[in-house]
Amino acid sequence: MKPKIKITRTNFPNQSMLYWMTYITNILEEKYEVIIDTDEPDLVFWTNIHFSTDQTDFYTNKNARCHTSYPKAKKIYLSCEMTPSHLNIIEMENYYAIGPEPLNHEKYLHLPIHNTTAAWGLFNESKLFDKPYDWLTEIRNGEEILKEKKYFCGVVQNSTVPMRQELFEKLSKYKFVRASGGWITNVPSEEQTVRHINDGECYKSKINFLKNCKFSFQIQSNVLRYLTVEKMIHAYAANTIPIYFGNDKVLEDGFNPKSFINCHDFNTVDEIVDEIIKIDKDDELFKQMISEPIFIKNELPYYFNHEYVFNFLEKIINNKI
User: Fold this and answer.
1) Which terminus of the chain has a lower count of CB atoms within 10 Å, N or C?
2) To which H or E segment does residue 127 belong?
């Protein structure tokens, strides 16, 4: 019989990011019987995104709470898009953190969690893949992928970022860039992405929109060193070439630099546009790039190994750190 571990989450958006918790739960269930308990949890997983305490959290089916309402529980911060200092968090008693910064501290786990949870969500909620990570190392056939492409480039985004706006305007002078979302929508209603209360449905709609495009904008709203959000994984899931901007240390996540356009390698937006046009005009160059492995040596980075995360959590559970 597996030992029981009681968990809850706080400070998450009330209706979304459920796949983050199914990711954590799946890891813990290797050894524990996981019980959602909002009254006396052993572990509280929390982040710092907007939430409402007067509304139900769809994960717990109880009113949302703040992490400070659990003084006795062990609290594990999961780094999200607006990341405070991890060191300030882990200095507090019974506080731990998981995040993308390469910090060396026993109470902290270095994990580019957006990469792992994004892939997990496409499997667990979007139901796009039979296994969570196997597709990330499958051999991609550039010849076949090119045949499937109907459009030049696509973007799905809700927020406004000056660099993205400039790139969109300049690239649109070359060819039509398909857009859907709160930021810009320029396609007929029947072709637009669907906003849904469930992240899995939203992401499935996004990937279905992008999969007919050769390139896709993956420009982060929050430009923070070491923070790579879900955009890269979504681009690869759609078999597009990501046009990426956000984390200037993105290669430290293990991504193959030959598989995407890293905007940080260029001095100006005009140079980025020239690079995209060059690849678009050369089918052989496109096929070569889209056939490249997603990760270096076509190997999943160490942080995709659930045991890596489990070992950290178990040390917390067993009072080893």
Assistant:
1) N
2) none
| 8 A C-beta contact, residue 321 and residue 90 | no
Q: SS in 3 state form for 221-252?
A: CCCCCCCCCCHHHHHHHCCCEEEEECCCCHHH
* Amino acid at the residue 125: E
Number of neighbouring beta carbons within 10 Å of residue 315: 15
**CATH number, domain containing residue 137:** 3.40.50.11660
Cα–Cα distance between 240 and 205 in angstroms, integer?
15
Q: Are strands 151-156 and 108-110 parallel, antiparallel or unpaired?
A: unpaired
Q: What is the pLDDT at residue 83?
A: 63
Q: 140 and 107, same structural domain?
A: no
Q: Interior CA angle at 216 toward 214 and 218, to 5°?
A: 155
Separation between Cα atoms, residue 74 and residue 76, nearest integer Å: 7
- Boundaries of domain holding 61: 4-112+302-317
Contact between residue 148 and residue 211 where contact means Cβ atoms under 8 Å apart:
yes
Six token digits for residue 3: 């030992």
Query: Is 23 a residue whose pLDDT tops 70?
Result: yes
- Structure token digits, residue 57: 């959290």
Q: Residue 84: pLDDT band by 50, 70, 90 thresholds?
A: low
Residues 6+ apart with CB under 8 A from 160: 183
Full DSSP string of 265-295: G-SSHHHHHHHHHHHHH-HHHHHHHHHS-SB
Work out the average pLDDT over 13-40: 93
CB atoms within 10 A of CB 318: 8
**124 in any annotated domain:** no
In the chain, the N- to C-terminal Cα span, in Å, equals 25
C-alpha–C-alpha distance, residues 103 and 320, integer Å: 19
What separation in angstroms does the CA of 184 have from each of 164, 179, 187, 197, 214? 11, 6, 9, 20, 19
Residue 317 in tokens: 């559970």
Cα gap 159→82, rounded to integer Å: 15
Phi, psi (deg, nearest 5) at residue 218: -130, 70
